């Protein structure tokens, strides 16, 4: 299996359909989360909606680079979640995450293995390999947070 194929598989596992590392994935953890739960604040933790937006912000931000465009995202905006006040708004955020994740994976599949060692946008960001690995690791980090927040929300309810 090529390096790109392995990265695509790892990305899909954490975002859409895998169980290998954490025995869960974003799609599994976010299914059934109501919009009220998604925006419920527990202490100083980010909300589930905020973490969902945050992960999608980076996925959506890298898509233009995979298409040959520029990197336009800025870390300072990665938590600028618009207010979510309905089921429809929450579902729209989820649908955007699934769509962007699918597009990210499809574009990643088209990258030749030889590109993995090339500079990603600017030398300060390292290589494509480092950025794709970072995307996957970042997703697992926040998947863990979402899983714990769901448990805390359930404990509050009980």
Distance between the termini: 46 Å
Helix share bin: 55-70%
Q: How large a portion of the residues is in β-strands, by DSSP E?
A: under 5%
Q: How many helix segments?
A: 6
Specify the overall morphology. Answer: globular
Give the uncertain stretches in residue-range form: none
Please state the average pLDDT score. 96
Structural class: mainly alpha
Main β-sheet description: none
| Rg (C-alpha, Å) | 16 Å
Series of H and E elements: HHHHHH
Number of strands: 0
How would you characterize the overall build of this protein?
With 158 residues, the protein is mostly helical. 61% of the residues lie in helices and 0% in strands. The chain has helices at 3-17, 26-30, 35-39, 48-66, 87-109, 128-157. α1 packs antiparallel against α5, α1 (3-17) runs parallel beside α6 and α4 (48-66) packs parallel to α5 (87-109). The model has no long low-confidence stretch (mean pLDDT 96).
Question: What attributes does this structure have?
Answer:
mainly alpha, 6 helices
